[in-house]
Write a structure and sequence with these properties.
Elements (H helix, E strand, L loop, with lengths): L4 E11 L2 H32 L5 H11 L13 H23 L22 E3 L5 E3 L2 E4 L3 E7 L6 E10 L2 E11 L8 E8 L3 E6 L4 E5 L4 H17 L5 H35 E7 L3 H6 L1 H10 L1 H15 L2 E5 L25 E3 L6 E3 H10 L15 H5 L14 H14 L2
Helix pairs in contact: 1-2, 1-3, 2-3, 4-5, 5-8
The protein binds zinc ion.
């Protein structure tokens, strides 16, 4: 076994008792106070001294608050939380300067802000040394033993943990340093995966087609979400009942996100366990979402999350992931003879190949093409037919269109010329 290490994260749900929960809430408020006070001092120091305080000076400033009259309570907070806060504040300032001077590329970084009560709460950081897990309880610095539930913890060294609140629930995200896991040899050599709107993933392993259906159970929740949101908007801003309604919306949002995540975890885990090489088409999810008629289905399909999970899980398991570019003609090439059929556009689910007469399911055919991606394509006589990929663009292709799809096609027809290759 090699000494290679990877980092893995785990998120646990915490069940603090009343006293612990009130400590956590107090610490969050305390951190907000420290952040604002320190930021204020930083700006004042800049005005007086004509230069920005250093990292060490910011840290000394925050430590000094522990001894100041009126803010002695700061020393009751976990020391690591204050240390991280001081690092975060310094980093926020540096990012801001580098953004201004052009040293840092990318979107403009805003000036570090004062934190309001309503805005996202600061996380409470916990150190590794004083955190220990066991028997459904996690021992946290200054908090004692807290009940938790969650996934199996990665076997490794705990690097750090962050306790945060979402809606009305407490969570702890922990990062571990682990050895690269030894995966069993995969049952098949390769799978090709087509991601789609109708079916989340269509998987071809060289012999069989398997489909991962779209998560349908969410429609019900989403309708309820709409109702909750309407209810919230009817209520008077700032009122207690409005806040209640707002919390209900937040809880449901989270529930939906959790269901999606869970589903994607299971599906991607199975795929990574099943094959040594995973070929998948990387789609431009954003361009789908722009098309309003399918944006909802896109969100449902959770394609982006699925792909990112595949990436890191393949990495952990030592599998190779081949990403097939989105402009490869995977759906409009016949997987039997290699002829290209330009008439296959978004919305067509079945079509007939004019080259060999095969009837294709759009997704199945695409999965087979992705499976064969990067390998030389041969026809029945054993000759390479690579030329067909580029030379088969004859006009007048006749897609097989069942009655109920003509409506979709009419709409798609207008877009096909620019939307698809
Ligand atoms: Zn064909």
């Amino acid at each position: 076994m090699s000494g290679a290490k990877i980092t893995r994260a785990a998120v646990l749900r915490l069940y603090p008792n009343q006293q612990q929960a009130s400590s956590l809430r107090r610490w969050q408020g305390g951190l907000r106070y420290v952040w604002n006070a320190a930021l204020d001092c930083v700006f004042t120091a800049r005005d007086i001294n004509g230069r920005w305080p250093s990292k060490a000076e910011i840290h000394a400033l925050i430590v000094g608050m522990k001894k100041m009259a009126g803010t002695e309570w700061i020393s009751d907070m976990p020391a690591h939380a204050l240390l991280t806060l001081s690092d975060d504040l310094h980093k926020a300032l540096v990012n801001w300067f580098n953004g201004l001077s052009g040293k840092r590329k990318g979107p403009k970084i805003a000036r570090p802000r004062f934190r309001g009560k309503v805005a996202k709460q600061l996380s409470v950081y916990m150190v590794n040394q004083n955190t220990s897990f066991g028997d459904g309880l996690v021992k946290l610095p200054k908090l004692g033993k807290v009940k938790f539930r969650g996934c199996d913890l990665p076997a490794g060294r705990l690097l750090s943990s962050r306790v945060y609140r979402e809606a009305d629930k407490w969570y702890m995200a922990s990062i571990f340093e682990c050895a690269v896991p030894q995966m069993n040899a995969a049952p098949v050599e390769c799978v090709g995966i087509d991601m789609g709107l109708k079916t989340l993933a269509t998987i071809y392993d060289g012999l069989n087609i398997r489909e991962v259906p779209k998560l349908g159970a969410l429609r019900k929740h989403e309708q309820r979400l709409k109702r909750y949101q309407r209810r919230m908007s009817r209520r008077v801003k700032g009122s207690r009942r409005r806040n209640q309604a707002k919390q209900a919306v937040a809880r449901l949002h989270q529930r939906i996100a959790n269901i999606r995540k869970d589903y994607a975890h299971k599906a991607t885990g199975e795929i990574v366990a099943s094959a040594q090489t995973i070929k998948v088409e990387t789609l431009n999810v954003k361009s789908w979402a722009k098309n309003r008629s399918i944006s909802k289905s896109t969100a449902d399909a959770s394609v982006g999350m699925f792909l990112s999970m595949l990436r890191y899980k393949a990495d952990w398991a030592g599998r190779s992931l081949v990403e097939v570019g989105q402009w490869e003609p995977t759906s409009k090439t016949c997987s039997d003879c290699g002829a290209r059929e330009p008439g296959v556009v978004l919305g067509i689910s079945r079509w007939v190949c004019r080259g060999c007469g095969a009837i294709h399911d759009r997704d199945h055919n695409a999965a087979k093409n992705i499976y064969a991606y990067g390998e030389e394509r041969r026809n029945v006589t054993g000759n390479t037919v690579e030329s067909a990929w580029t030379g088969g663009d004859q006009a007048g292709a006749i897609p097989l269109v069942p009655q109920d799809e003509t409506r979709i096609l009419k709409r798609i027809g207008r877009e096909s010329s620019r939307a698809l290759v």
